[in-house]
Predict the structure.
Amino acid sequence: ELQTALAANEVQDFAVAAPALAQLNQLTRAAIADGAEVLFGQLPFETEAVTNETVPRMQPLVLRNVSSDSELARSDLACPVVSLISVADMSGALAADAKCPYSLGASVFGPTNYAEHWAKKINAGCVVLNDIVVPTADPRVAFGGRQWSGWGVTRGAEGLLAMTRPKTICTRKGSWLPHLNPERANDHASLVSLLRVFHSGSLRGRLAAAKSLVTRSRAQPKSATGSDPGAENSH
């Protein structure tokens, strides 16, 4: 379908920097030697790109049967090139995608529930469902890459926050300052019990930890200052 659509329309050629064209030549030839096929367009010639005094131009290049292990599929190319990689299912697509260090954006096409399920598993800065990159132009949409793609987050609420530096002001209310009390022998064990009260995996474990915490609190001698009503329970 892609081949038919490109062939049925007058496809323009694009200006490409000579170094990028030379890189594309090298990677494309290696991919073809590894089994890839040119589906549309022509393989540009590196000699023309280097010797031509004007800016080199090329039509879109579409290749199929590209291996996900090839450098062509793993490189950042400033050229109009598409590499088609065949996979058995979405798990295979994610495995192939994981081999590429660039994770700026992705698109998933299919029923909403299906697309949403796989979108959550894709490692990319922005995933578009049932469309291409057009929605990412919306200034309300936060946009940022993963791995080797992008420079943080731009646009959206997250993009605005990325341009800020937080400042925190803490105000102490009251005179109870348990964090200034001298360390006591049972503080470590009491802290462990307190963590188990909140994070134990079972109700029985939390109740046992609470009982232990109360027992240690009652057995703990008062601080030497004696004037702080909360010092006894400072743990």
Q: What stands out?
A: The mean pLDDT is 83.
